[in-house]
Write a structure and sequence with these properties.
By secondary structure, this protein is α/β, with parallel strands linked by helices. The chain is about 35% helix and about 15% strand.
Length: about 220
């Protein structure tokens, strides 16, 4: 799979940033999208994935995509009576609509290959005070489950990874993790899972992988 082209969204922080570094070292050709392109030391395009015209313009610059990794997402945790219309718009526009639009336009540059979605355990079962985030991730899973039935005939295989909590800069003084952060998943745990999927034979598809840190269970 070396010298293949990978498109990674959310590539300037957290797991996405680590994936860009990892796959670049392995010799893949990387296209990365992210909101903080000025804060990384590798080529990355600032594209608002809630803006379809920006997505189209970027995808048109790419000749071929072998692997799409939908990693971009925003996280929100709040009680129901604190949710505002602006929160609904931002979470759904990025996590659901944005990932859908990136996927649909990326398919036009894919002959075969894989689409790997970094989803969440919140997309499998609702989590208290994460109703909006859970809804966005559940919607993405069902969309991908449906789309996979169309694309599998074209040799494009879709996999969903559903991690529990990951030890990244997401957890900070303004968004405290309710437990021991050191026991959370490491970004390398997600990267190893992506490596596993990419390394599978072309006739094998993994639909869903759920991974938890040992201090969580939903």
């Amino acid at each position: 799979m070396k010298n293949k082209t990978i498109l990674i969204t959310g590539g300037t922080s957290g797991v996405g940033k680590e994936m860009v570094t990892h796959f670049t070292k392995l010799g893949y050709d990387i296209y990365a999208l992210g909101r903080n392109s000025d804060k990384v030391n590798f080529p990355c395009k600032s594209v608002d994935i809630s803006n379809e015209s920006e997505i189209i313009n970027f995808i048109n610059e790419i000749d071929n995509i072998d692997i799409l990794i939908n990693n971009a997402a925003i996280y929100q945790r709040s009680e129901y009576d604190n949710i505002k219309q602006s929160d609904i718009n931002s979470v759904i526009d990025i996590n659901l609509k944005g990932s859908i639009m990136v996927t649909l336009h990326s398919i036009t540059k894919m002959k075969r290959g894989r689409i790997i979605n970094i989803n969440s355990v919140a997309g499998l079962s609702g989590i208290r005070n994460q109703s909006l985030y859970s809804a966005s991730k559940a919607g993405l899973k069902v969309f991908m489950d449906s789309l996979s039935q169309e694309l599998i005939e074209k040799g494009i295989l879709i996999s969903n990874i559903h991690p529990g909590g990951i030890n990244t800069e997401l957890w900070n003084s303004g968004n405290k993790y309710p437990g021991d952060v050191t026991k959370l998943l490491d970004p390398t745990d997600i990267i190893n899972t992506v490596d596993y999927i990419i390394g599978l034979s072309d006739n094998v598809v993994v639909k869903d992988i759920t991974i938890f840190p040992t201090n969580e269970w939903h």
